């Protein structure tokens, strides 16, 4: 019987494009050298996105997972859920009662991978740079609470914040706060291409063809000094056009591990397969999927249209038909298991009700059926995304109140079009930067939000988000968090759909797979090793 490993939440804490010949790899599971990891993620350099792996620009799960292996941060998220722990820093903490002054002391002897020493000035330079560039990915917003950065000697960095921010330690654990050398990263512009210089546990060797990253090799960094223990000297990552091709590569021993991008059918098959040489690891996850509305677009600018969609969409049916037991319906931006979660959308709209949706539209004077296109990405969230949008479209059309069609696009085009307001309605996924409710609210609703959404609510931005950040005890922030979720349910600038689980499939001679992904979908390649899994 296939061994299916369930990883509990307390124990858990992507890559490149199409290969011309995925079987032509070096170091598959048979040679005992590199551990080879497969994925369906793709990375390209383009005119619209010339610097995909610059820490001042990168802001998606795939590019962040490249940077987490290679660029060191002061703090890092621990194996299990919990507050960040020191990484490049020896110690960090608030030095005032108001959570507005935060100080870190660097470890002694830190070096970049080229051997150059790292000082407090390098930390200041790196974060000041990300704030100054203000890349259109809006990742700099994670650091927006910083007023000034002060250094004292070579090892102490002091952050003076504009206002109280109890989540600031989490933000220092994200790649935008990565420490980079000044001679490789210009102060006022992004670094184009796939080259990375840092001080993380691995160095990065990209193989690029026609602007696409076709192979990524991670080699143990001999200069690394931090909190992590590196389990294997060499990791390679390859990307496949489809989950099926990736699965065939695992069966053919061309790769050792499958990560992000497996299909629901594939996961079910692996869970029930009699092959005892492959382990399927299932763990709780904080990935969410949702619809985004361009609230300035004529088709959805009237709140009643968005509310009617919230009344009609049947999340339970959607999940059952497309994802089965691999996802759960979600009724708020904040997923279950995260402090501050509420079922705001269910509390307001209840079970799907077409008659109440009709009443909303009639009262608002909306002519039906309302015509619109639902947009989705074809190559970023897995092969089931199209089926998901077919179901969403069917549910809306079957109500008689909507006339929808669907349209897919590749991720690079899709992401830019959404941020530029070219879609009225489109589907997105979110993998949290850190496991706190703030990171499921502020990135969508605050100023400089990554969606570039025209929706703005003054109470959320000026009162409620600052209130939540003043509370070091996150339970004390729950009331303000719930108020934010109630406003979102009423205004529907976004519509949460479901929350997913995480899966890794690996040959049983690879160890560390239970820790390969933490609850925020952070890839932790340093956990992998060779041996006999237990």
Automatic annotation (TrEMBL):
<feature type="signal peptide">
    <location>
        <begin position="1"/>
        <end position="20"/>
    </location>
</feature>
<feature type="domain" description="Solute-binding protein family 5">
    <location>
        <begin position="84"/>
        <end position="449"/>
    </location>
</feature>
<dbReference type="InterPro" id="IPR030678">
    <property type="entry name" value="Peptide/Ni-bd"/>
</dbReference>
<dbReference type="InterPro" id="IPR000914">
    <property type="entry name" value="SBP_5_dom"/>
</dbReference>
<keyword id="KW-0813">Transport</keyword>
<dbReference type="InterPro" id="IPR039424">
    <property type="entry name" value="SBP_5"/>
</dbReference>
<protein>
    <submittedName>
        <fullName>ABC transporter substrate-binding protein</fullName>
    </submittedName>
</protein>
<dbReference type="Pfam" id="PF00496">
    <property type="entry name" value="SBP_bac_5"/>
</dbReference>
<keyword id="KW-0732">Signal</keyword>
<comment type="similarity">
    <text>Belongs to the bacterial solute-binding protein 5 family.</text>
</comment>
């Amino acid at each position: 019987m296939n061994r299916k490993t369930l990883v509990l939440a307390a124990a858990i804490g992507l890559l490149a494009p199409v290969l011309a010949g995925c079987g032509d790899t070096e170091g598959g599971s048979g040679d005992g050298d590199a551990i080879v990891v497969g994925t369906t993620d793709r990375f390209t350099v383009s005119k619209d996105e010339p610097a995909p792996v610059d820490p001042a620009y990168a802001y998606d799960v795939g590019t962040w997972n490249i940077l987490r292996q290679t660029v060191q941060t002061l703090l890092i998220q621990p194996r299990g859920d919990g507050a960040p722990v020191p990484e490049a820093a020896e110690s960090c903490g608030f030095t005032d009662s108001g959570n507005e002054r935060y100080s870190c002391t660097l470890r002694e002897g830190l070096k970049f991978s080229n051997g150059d020493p790292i000082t407090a000035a390098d930390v200041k330079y790196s974060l000041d740079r990300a704030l100054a560039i203000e890349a259109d990915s809006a990742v700099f917003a994670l650091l927006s609470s910083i007023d000034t950065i002060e250094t004292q000697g070579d090892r102490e960095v002091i952050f003076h914040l504009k206002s109280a921010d109890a989540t600031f330690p989490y933000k220092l654990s994200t790649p935008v706060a990565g420490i980079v050398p000044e001679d490789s990263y210009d102060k006022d512009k992004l670094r184009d291409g796939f080259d990375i210089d840092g001080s993380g546990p691995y160095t990065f060797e990209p193989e690029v063809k026609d602007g696409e990253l076709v192979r990524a090799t991670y080699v143990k960094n001999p200069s690394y000094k931090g909190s992590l223990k590196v389990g294997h000297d060499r990791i390679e990552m390859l990307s496949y056009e489809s989950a099926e091709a990736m699965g065939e590569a695992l069966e053919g021993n061309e790769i050792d591990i499958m990560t992000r991008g497996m299909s629901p059918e594939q996961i079910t098959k692996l869970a029930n397969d009699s092959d005892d040489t492959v382990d399927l690891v299932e763990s709780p996850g904080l990935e969410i999927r949702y619809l985004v509305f361009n609230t300035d677009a004529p088709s959805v600018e009237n709140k009643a249209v968005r509310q009617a969609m919230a009344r009609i969409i049947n999340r339970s049916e959607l999940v059952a038909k497309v994802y089965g037991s691999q996802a759960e319906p979600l009724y708020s931006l904040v997923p279950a298991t995260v402090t501050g979660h509420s079922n705001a959308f269910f509390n307001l709209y209840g079970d799907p009700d077409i008659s109440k949706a009709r009443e909303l539209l009639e009262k608002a004077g909306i002519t039906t059926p309302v015509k619109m296109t639902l947009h989705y990405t074809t190559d970023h969230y897995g092969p089931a995304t199209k089926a998901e949008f077919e179901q969403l479209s069917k549910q809306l059309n079957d109500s008689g109140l909507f006339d929808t069609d669907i349209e897919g696009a590749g991720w690079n085009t899709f992401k830019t079009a959404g941020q530029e307001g070219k879609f009225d309605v489109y589907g997105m996924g979110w993998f949290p930067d850190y496991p706190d409710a703030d990171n499921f609210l502020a990135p969508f609703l605050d100023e400089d939000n990554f969606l570039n959404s025209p929706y703005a609510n003054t109470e959320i931005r000026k009162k409620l988000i600052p209130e939540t950040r003043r509370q070091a005890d996150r339970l004390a922030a729950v009331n303000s968090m719930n108020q934010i979720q109630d406003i979102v349910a009423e205004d529907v600038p976004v519509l949460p759909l479901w929350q997913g689980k995480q899966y890794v499939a690996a040959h049983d001679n690879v160890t560390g797979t239970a820790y390969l992904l933490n609850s925020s979908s952070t890839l932790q390649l340093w956990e992998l090793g060779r041996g006999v899994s237990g």
